[in-house]
Every structure is written in structure tokens, then in C-alpha cells.
Structure prediction request, 229 residues.
Amino acid sequence: MKISKLHITLEEKTLVEIAFEISSSLALVGQSGSGKSLTIKALLGMLPQGMDCKLEYRSEYELKAGHDISFVPQNPFTALSPLTKIKNQFFSSDKNVKKLFSQVGLDERLLERFSLELSGGQLQRIVIAMALESEPKLLLLDEPTTALDPQTRVLILDLLKKLQKEFAFKILFVTHDMLSAESLCETLCVIKNGRVIEQGNMSEILKNPKESYTKTLIDASFAKREFRK
Prediction:
């Protein structure tokens, strides 16, 4: 899928003007306020009222949430109803839901529980299972590991890599964390103030970033890894 133009404006002020291509898995990386979340909302058709969007793309599937695109949000606690059993928050058959639970590494007995009874890692796996119900061709990830501890973060990223092989979906991973981006994605697109400043092969950019902004993001992420060691 190739986004040849994504232009988001508010009262004639340009907020985002970018282009990128997702061949398999792309990380869209930038600091807070760079336009990452606006990009995902635009692709889902969920921009706040008052914002205008011009989107030009070439794809073998339709850019429409709930059909060929699924979304995994940053915070699983707000994505689920605390008053409804987990099993009643899926739309497909019990057999399919149990299969999805197995694929994301969850015990089907959790279907009888409520979200407040479960851990953040369990809830994120449930939200991923929900995203896979429609068998999407593109999975949008909006910093889905931010609220998780480091160990659970690694497990979720490994799970997403495994699921991509099983389901053959493409990934657009929005994050500010280069470590997570490196772990999950083949290509990288760095944005600043709503503009692309660097993009290409993940390993090549990490080894030799051309922009000082990109180097700052890399240094900040890898410094955290060295500190944890």
C-alpha cells in the first residue's frame, strides 16, 4: 500500500503533509505532537471535527475501519467495557473467539471475566484478538506497548510478529520508541512537525541516520536499553 499524499489541515493551517509506503511493516516514529496519531485517525476516517483531510493512495484493499483495516489502541483499559464480560465484546462465533484466544496465547476461561479483573498484558492480547476478528489486511498500531512493563512489551511485540506471519497482514506501527520499532518493523518513516524528514530501511537508518532529529530519537531509545542492562 502506498500513501502518495496525506494532507491534514485545521482552519487552513497544515498539520500533517506526508507520504509513505507499507510493503510489509512500517514504523512511523516521532516525538509527541509530530502528527503520528493524526495520521492513524485520518486513515481510519476518525479525525476530529473541523479538520480537513486529503488522502491519495494506491492499495489492493479499501481504507476503511472494520473491513480491511483493524486498529489496536494505546490503552487497552479504555478500549473495553468494564461492565461487559469479555466474551460479549466480540462479534464472531464462540468457536472463532476461542481460536483467536489460543492464537494470542490466552486461556479461554478469561472470556468469562471482566476487563477490570485482568492485567494490562492480558487486555492488550484481547484487543489484538478483537482486531483480528475481521481478518484485516492492514493492522494499525497506535503505541500499543506504551502502558506495559518492559518484559510484557517484548512479549507483545513478539506476538505481533508471530501473528503477522500467520495472518499475512501489513503493519503500520506508530511509536516514539526506536527499540520497539526496530523489533517489529522492516522500514522506518521519521516525522517531525507533520513532515517526513527521513525514511527507508530500518537497519540502515539506525546505523547511519542522516538527520540529527532521528539520531536524537535513536540515542534516547537505546540509552534506555543500556540503562536497563
